[in-house]
Structures are given as C-alpha cells and as structure tokens.
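Moderator note: this is an archived Q&A kept for reference. The question asked for a predicted structure of one protein chain; the sequence and the answer are reproduced below.
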Amino acid sequence: MVRLVLALAALIIAACSAPHRGPLLVASPLPQPFSDGSFNVVVSRTAGAMAESGTLKQWSVLQTPIDHEPISPPAPGLTPLDPASVYAQRVPSVLVIMSIYKCEKCPLWHLGSTAAGFVIAPGVLVTNWHVVESKTDQFAAAVTCRGDVLAITDLLARREPDDIALLRFDPAGLDLAPIPLRDAAPVGSPVLAIAHPDRKYWTLTEGLLSRRASVYGGVNADRRDLRPRNLNEAPPTGRLYEPVYPNMLRPIVTVTADFGVGSSGGPILDFAGNALGMIASTHTVFSAGGEGHDHEREPQMTIRTCVPAESIRDACRSRSD
C-alpha cells in the first residue's frame, strides 16, 4: 500500500513539473505590445516611401488578369489543434490588404481602405474582388503581422459573381506558409475567423458553419434578388428544389463567427488550420417594426456570408469567369 501511494505521488509530481502543452505556451505571432494606431502610422510611412520609389502599383493598373499557370494550394491538414495554436500558426499568412494615398492637405501618406487576404500558394494571395475593384489612383499593398509592407504586382484571376480575386505579391524573402483549402465542410463544423474588423487587426472569433446555399446574382447580391431579373422565358418545371436558371446560381456558406467592416477577404478556418472559405459580407435582419410599421425596426440577427473554399479552388484554375 505504501509503495502504491509513493508511486501515485511520484506520478502527480511528474505531471505537475512537466511543461504545459496547451495554448498557454503558444507564443503570440503579433509583436507585443501590439498597437493598432502605431501599426497604422508605421505601415503608412513605409508604404508611402515605397510608393514614391515606384515599388508599389496603383489599384487602377491591377484590374485585368494576366496569363498564369494553374495555382496549386497545399493539401489540407488533418491534425486538430486548439484555437490558440491555429491562430499562432495562421496569423503570419493572413495579410492586411491596404490602400495608401498622398494627402492633398499635408505632406503625409495616409491609409485608405483596409481589408484582409490570405496566402494560398507561394507569392499568391486571395481576397475579395470588391476589395480590388477600383478606379482610384491609390496604391496597393499587403502587410504582414510584423509590419512588412509587400508589393502587389499582378491580378491573376477574378471571379466577380463569386467575389474572388487572386493576387500575386512579392514576398520579399519572407517565408509565408500557404493556408490549405478544405472543400465541402459540413454544416455544423466548428470554425474560426481571423480578420481586421474596423482596423482591429488579426481579431480571432469562433463559431459554426451554419448554412450552405446558392444565391442568384452573385455572392453579395442583395437579399431581394431572390429570382433573376429581366428574364422573359418561363421558369422550367421540375422536382422540388430543382434550381431555376442554375447557371445564375453561386454557392455560399454562412457562419456564426463574428466579423465586421474591414474583414473582407479573411479566412474561415477549421481546427486543423485549413480554410473552409473566405469572408465576404454581412446582412442584418431587422424586425418588421410596430403597428403600422411606424416604430423603429430592431436588429434581430446578422447573417455572415462567405465564399466557399471550392469556389476559390476553381478560381485557381483560370483567370476569370
């Protein structure tokens, strides 16, 4: 009996003295302390100097895809991780996609719009087409979590209805690991989102993949676009739920992980660090209001729409729609 007690005590002491293998030992991928304001100032100055030297391109010259070889994202990972480990592993490959412009009222360079994008192959990132689509003369750049400002050099592919843009960038010698794509994750899968809502950079949220569906008019079509417009032919008859005008349908997924303005292009990840999709848009559902609809409507829920990984993989094969 004494030997058994001593053996148990030895096991407890060994367990307590063993290094902790959970998320408490995961080092932050962000410089600490991290300040959003300081980050904005530093990258604005760096990007401004790069724009003046001719290193950065303007968004207006990044609107037409160039010929390229098919892009091959890495195979999905299988090892499940805790959220802290997924965050530490993937944050270096999640970039800030930013616009920079020279102020007309002062000698400084300023940040324009900011969004997200993530690396899917060496020197290739994916973001939303609505982030890239622009007629302005502001300059384009991608920024790492360490503040490295990278030049965006080419538009490789665009899928306007799917809200996808593939961009080539100069990694400047940095080893930015591509994030694998995982197709067809089922509804109910736990997910993580990494994005930059309201310039709160590299924010992590958690939720579920809540829905798979198809929509008319593109991924970000207004919810009123439930049927195609300006079509004179009668819808075909068929089985229940058979798509009407299937060539106009675009796949989407929705998630319950939170995100907001500035998050466009961020990855939706599983717990193995694979991208199940990409953040695209939000739509707030309001109540109908009071009697006679005179009372102010109240928000009831937010639908968070994302581009599925399958659409991104398909865009890797060709330049445009």
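Archived answer notes: Residues 30 and 146 are 7 Å apart (CA to CA).
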